[in-house]
UniProtKB/TrEMBL annotation:
Annotated Glycosyl hydrolase family 67 catalytic domain residues: 138-464
Annotated InterPro entries: A-glucoronidase_C_sf, GH, Glyco_hydro_67_aGlcAse_N, Glyco_hydro_67_C, Glyco_hydro_67_cat, Hex-like_dom2
GO annotation terms (biological process): xylan catabolic process
Limits of the Glycosyl hydrolase family 67 C-terminal domain: 465-687
Domain Alpha glucuronidase N-terminal residues, every copy: 9-132
Residues annotated as signal peptide: none
Protein name per UniProt: Alpha-glucuronidase family glycosyl hydrolase
Any single Pfam family the record assigns to this protein: Glyco_hydro_67N
Listed GO MF terms: hydrolase activity, hydrolyzing O-glycosyl compounds
Keywords: Carbohydrate metabolism, Glycosidase, Hydrolase, Polysaccharide degradation, Xylan degradation
Organism: Halomarina salina
Domain of life: Archaea
């Protein structure tokens, strides 16, 4: 049997089982009266045809008027466009929905059963269509349906780290880039299916290229590298090629963004400076923005990584981040565009955790209204577990964006199964000031200009993400970006049932695998007490962040003969004091600091006793080996599904688990030997080889 060119992920639309549901679904969905007024409505009609055909085993009849011969029908359109919709809903309530919001209601119209899908915008009809098909795919009743939905977060972006013209991906673990920039403006069907995946979970913006728009040193040493650099996408010849791709995404309610190089006035233009305070630079950015919007009228804006890891920025010109961000913001403002200015800046401090807050908090209130400061969830760099960035909750007069990493850079790189949704829920539910003066992280992004940015899009592999189970991270990110109040169990159940079907044993087993995968990775790659960066980095651009090598990062674990951990408290660099008092006091005292972050904030003796009576070093030993045991359990659970999951996916995931277990063993052996070498304290259970 020939293989599919690529996987359908959670958009499989398998035929619905159940005594009453299919008949009810046929009553409402076998006939579809849908508006044809906008490009987005073409996407709606196509998706309804595809989805209903799969769910009911027959294509729906698509009408451009209400069918009078049918027992019932689905009506899709705005109240202004369609009489049946206008007569069936509370128009004022629909009109008050946020952009992307929609209303689903079953009712009766002229003696006919009608399921109404309506929204104030065509984008909302796209999202509503996918929500309805998800509702049907999960076997939920449509009787007495009366649902209003709108996104909690205004901006919901996916940041691709794709390198144009090379088709490579930084931190991409699923093959080459989806985007063949050299073949544009020609498009293929896979772009359509990628837009469908994003729209199905409510994504409304896609950044096409890597924030690292140049590769320092290598570009200057090799002129050919400069010809392949991402900053060239601002050149007119390449901007013109993007118009078709932007139009395709537009059909699915998704705006196109570009990562830009702060030095573009010199690199792309003919200026000798990129100084943001120079009038010529300001004029150049304004003219470039005009050109972009002439080609792509709904262009979302620019994402900028500046003054970090070799990327140029305002510091090159004795200016600050407000100067740098605002010059771009003024250029985009007339067009409704936005600057997403990344806060990942480090280099002037020995501990990068300190710099982000010190750099940006004093600038609160000075950024232009169309600047979003994009802040990683933690102060270090997408570690398997780290504290929440102290920036959140402490810049009330600045639009912030929460940056999460969809791809698994430090969580097994899509060789290991690691479900990120439980980690993200921990971030979103975090109270930025437990004394009641602040908000939870998830409450910070409801205003226009705020939202979430997920780093790392799918690649060209047939399964999109390099590991079939990693598809859940893209799905979960989109669902949480739309509604951060959703719990992990709900998101997991949705994804498992749409991806693997409704077999109770499969659902239960895959769910258990997903929920236990993150704790396993945390334990065998860190020891579980707040350590981080225990992995191999490598030379030059060959870092892999995959294999264990704690010796390479002494500044992050602080291991010595007398103890382990890094003091980030009042006795040292004062990082804990960047939080509000209640949190600072909690983190500053090892007796009250959460155990999972203990060694992030404190350097403690190896024999320091924890609440359960175990010492620090024994807990590290135990956690590493527990992580291996859990990885083995995950593998056995998956193997139990042989014959219940299709052969291709079963075999792929099974073989990935074989590799994960071997790697988990390597990690545990390396870390526990490292802990023993520095502490000289043997493992009480004799699992760590001792010096003879």
């Amino acid at each position: 049997m020939a293989l599919e060119p690529y996987d359908d992920c959670w958009l499989r639309y398998g035929e619905v089982d159940g005594a009453s549901l299919p008949e009810s679904y046929r009553t409402y969905c076998a006939n579809v009266y849908a508006s044809v007024g906008a490009p987005e409505l073409g996407a709606v009609r196509e998706e309804l045809r595809r989805g209903i055909d799969g769910l009911l085993g027959r294509e729906p009849h698509l009408w451009q008027h209400p069918p009078r011969s049918a027992e019932g029908f689905l009506a899709v359109g705005t109240p202004d466009e369609m009489e049946v919709v206008h007569d069936s809903v509370a128009v004022d309530a629909v009109d008050s929905l946020a952009d992307g919001g929609f209303h689903l209601r079953t009712t009766e119209w002229e003696g006919c059963d009608v399921l109404v899908l309506t929204a104030p915008t065509d984008r909302g009809l796209v999202y509503g269509t996918f929500h309805l098909l998800r509702h049907l795919s999960l076997g939920r009743s449509v009787d007495d349906l009366d649902l209003f939905e709108e996104p909690a977060n205004a901006e919901r972006l996916v940041n691709h780290w794709d390198n144009p013209f090379r088709r490579s991906m930084e931190r991409g673990y699923a093959g080459q880039s989806l985007f063949d920039f050299e073949a544009l403006p020609n498009l293929d069907d896979r772009y359509v299916d990628y837009a469908r995946l994003l729209a199905s979970v409510g994504i409304n913006g896609v950044v096409l290229n890597n924030v690292n728009t140049e590769i320092p040193d290598r570009e200057s040493a090799n002129p050919a590298m400069s010809e392949l650099a991402g900053w060239r996408l601002l050149e007119s010849r390449y901007l013109e090629d993007l118009t078709g791709l932007a139009a395709l995404f537009r059909r699915y309610g998704i705006r196109t963004y570009l990562s830009v190089n702060f030095g573009a006035p010199e690199k792309v233009g003919d200026l000798e400076t990129s100084d943001p305070t120079d009038e010529r630079v300001e004029r150049w950015w304004a003219e470039k923005a005009d050109e972009v919007y002439d080609l792509i009228p709904d262009f979302g804006g620019f994402v900028v990584k500046a003054d970090s890891e070799g990327q140029p920025g305002p510091y090159n010109y004795d200016a600050d981040h407000v100067d740098g961000a605002n010059v771009l913001a003024r250029a985009l403002e007339p067009h409704g565009g936005r600057v997403w200015w990344r806060a990942f800046v480090y280099g002037s401090h020995s501990d990068r955790a300190v710099q982000q807050y010190e750099t940006f908090e004093p600038l609160d209130g000075e950024f232009h209204d169309n600047v979003t400061v994009q802040v990683k969830n933690g102060p270090i760099d997408f570690q398997p577990r780290e504290p929440i960035s102290p920036v959140f909750g402490q810049m009330p007069d600045t639009d912030l964006g929460l940056e999460l990493q969809i791809t698994g850079e430090y969580t097994g790189q899509h060789v290991h199964a690691c479900y990120h949704v439980p980690m993200w829920k921990e971030v979103l539910e975090f109270d930025t000031d437990p004394e009641g003066h602040g908000k939870r992280v998830k409450e910070l992004f409801s205003d226009p200009g705020t939202g979430l940015a997920g780093v790392g899009g799918p690649g060209a592999d047939p399964n999109w993400t390099g590991h079939y189970l990693a598809q859940a991270n893209l799905y979960g990110y989109g669902r949480l970006a739309w509604n951060p109040d959703l719990d992990t169990a709900t998101i997991t159940d949705e994804w498992v049932r749409q991806t693997f079907g409704h077999d109770p044993e499969v659902v239960e087993t895959v769910t258990d695998v997903m929920h236990d995968s993150w704790p396993a990775v945390v334990d065998y790659t860190t020891g579980g007490l707040g350590l981080m960066h225990m992995m191999y980095n490598g030379e030059a651009r060959l870092e892999n962040h995959y294999d264990p090598n704690p010796e390479e990062w002494p500044g992050y674990h602080g291991a010595s003969e007398d103890g382990i951990g890094v003091d980030r408290n009042a006795r040292a660099n004062g990082f804990a004091q960047q939080y509000p008092d209640a949190l600072a006091d909690r983190y500053d005292d090892p007796e009250t600091c959460p155990e999972e972050l203990l060694l992030f904030f404190h350097h403690l003796p190896w024999d320091h006793e924890l609440d359960d009576g175990r010492t620090v070093v024994q807990t590290l030993y135990d956690n590493c080996f527990a992580g291996v045991e859990l990885a083995e359990t995950l593998r056995e659970r998956w193997r139990s599904l042989d014959g219940r999951v299709d052969e291709r996916r079963f075999r792929h995931v099974a073989e990935r688990f074989d590799e994960q277990v071997v790697q988990a063993e390597r990690w545990a052996e390396t870390l526990t030997a490292f802990f023993y070498d520095h502490s000289g304290v043997p493992d009480e259970l004799g699992r760590v080889p001792r010096d003879e």
